[in-house]
Each structure stands twice: as structure tokens, then as C-alpha cells.
Amino acid sequence: MHIISRAEWGARAPESRSTVPWSKRTVFMGHYSAASATQTPRQIQDYHMRVRGWSDVGYNFLINSITGHIYEGRGWTTLGAHCADHNTEAIGVCIIGKDQAGRQDVSDAARRAFKWLYDEANNRKGRRLTLLGHRDRGSTSCPGDEIYSWLKAGLPIVGSSTPQPSQPTPKPGGTRPAPGTPVAFPLPAGWYFGPPSGPDYSVSGLYERYFRGRTDRAWLREWATQLSRRGWSVGQSKRWLGGAGNDGVYGPEYRALAEAFQRDQRLHVDGLIGRNTWDAAFRNPVT
Q1: pLDDT, tens digit (0-9, with 9 covering 90-100), for 136-165
Q2: pLDDT tens-place string over residues 66-91
Q3: How do 3-4 and 70-72 pair as beta strands?
Q4: Apex CA 38: angle with CA 1 and CA 160, to 5°?
Q5: Is-above-0.70 flag for pTM?
Q6: Residue 134: is it exposed, middle or buried by C-beta count within 10 angstroms (0-12/13-18/19+)?
Q7: d(CA 86, CA 112)
Q8: Which domains does the chain show, CATH number per domain?
Q9: Rounded CA gap, 76 and 61, in Å?
């Protein structure tokens, strides 16, 4: 699995840091953020630094409870600030989300990500770390009843239809190479072009945010233009994006185009333009 680096999610530089040798790491501790799953690591970091007065985000790693994306916090061997008096021994991992009427609603993707981090920590340590929840070492309800029960059960993982990032995407057959020069996916890892009502990593073009020197609108137009090069009828008064045209602002027309292209390319159909959907436009043979 891929860990989204601090640079990728836009972390502030820490004000100070202390390292911990692996010889002193004995615990792998689960937390939750007790807030919306749409929180970004940067928002959590800002709260920890500005309100709590800590030198950095408190956790060693963070996981989105919906997507399962893993974010680097302080990292494996930097002293955290997630559990008073136990930060030297414990690697703290926060699942971003909160209890909802007694349910945490942690996706299978998030569970797999947490278990992968735990296995990776054990490999780096050379032996199994003690698996705990925050409430085992502090007066708190963290990490919520659902996560805590799952931790105590030994992190069981049930089957899931959610595609795993490490699995290659099957490519449909085609005889003509993709036109033009491949363009690298412009957004940070785990982000996508999607509705403005989504989380911070859903980039809509509505607010004209800049990525790699260009606006999100320009990048979204680039993707749709590439589909036009591939033979799709894209643009105002055409089959796709016929209303507003290729204006670079994600809405129902872009979603419909993305879904049609994903079906054509045998991708996971969700209407969101992430790395796989982007790369298929620039790299997959024309069908």
C-alpha cells in the first residue's frame, strides 16, 4: 500500500521533533479523530499545533475511514503526542471519523489499511507489537466502540469488493495507441476530480485551486480534451459535455462522461476521475 507523504498532503513543518529507537517501540495504538471523516490531515495538524500547542500533528499515521488512504503523520520513529505518558512506547494511528449513533462505519478499505500498517510495524520491529486502543492507556472513549471491539478481536478482515490500490487495473484490448504524449496525474496521491460537496481531496474546479502550476479547471479540461483526441464526442452541443461544454467545472456532465469512459475501459465505475481513470485516458490503447 502507498503512504501519502507529508509533502503530498501539504503538512506544515514541525516546530521540533524527537526520535524514538525501535528498541523502545512496544505498542501499536488505535485512535479516532472524533470528528467528520471529511477532515483532512492538514486540518487535524492545524488544530493540534494552533489550539493544543503541540509541535506537529499528534499521530504517527492517519487513515481516512471511508477511502482507506494512509497519511504520514510523524512517521515510524518520531515521538508522537497522541497518548500522554505513552508516546515513546506507542505508535499512534488515527482513523479519521467519529461514532455515528453507536457506529463508526469504518470501511473495509480503512480496516485493511490499519492492519497493513500494523503488519508493517511488526516487520520493522522484528516482533509483534501489543495492539491497544487509546482507552487502554487513558481516560477516554477513544477510539470508539466499533474500532475498539475490532482491535480486541485481532483485526479480522472480511471480504470486500473494494479494489485494492496494489492490484493492477485490467486494460481492455485495443489496436491503436493512445494519442499524444502521456500526461502525469496532476493531483496528490489519493485525490480525484469530483463534486465540490466532497471532501478536500475531491477537486471540482469550482474554486480554481492550483496543482503543478495550473488550475484544476485547466487539468480537468485537459483530461476531457484527451478523450476527444481518443474519438469521443466531447464539447458544447456534442454527445458529452454538450451543455456547458468543457469548462473544467465538475458536475453531472463530467460525471456521466467519466462513468461512460470507466465502463469502456473496464474500470471501477464511480464517475470520479482519479489516477486510474486519468492514466487510462493517456496511456490505454484506443478501443
Answers
A1: 998 998 998 888 888 888 888 654 333 333
A2: 888 999 999 999 999 999 999 999 99
A3: parallel
A4: 45
A5: no
A6: buried
A7: 25
A8: 3-152 (3.40.80.10), 192-283 (1.10.101)
A9: 8
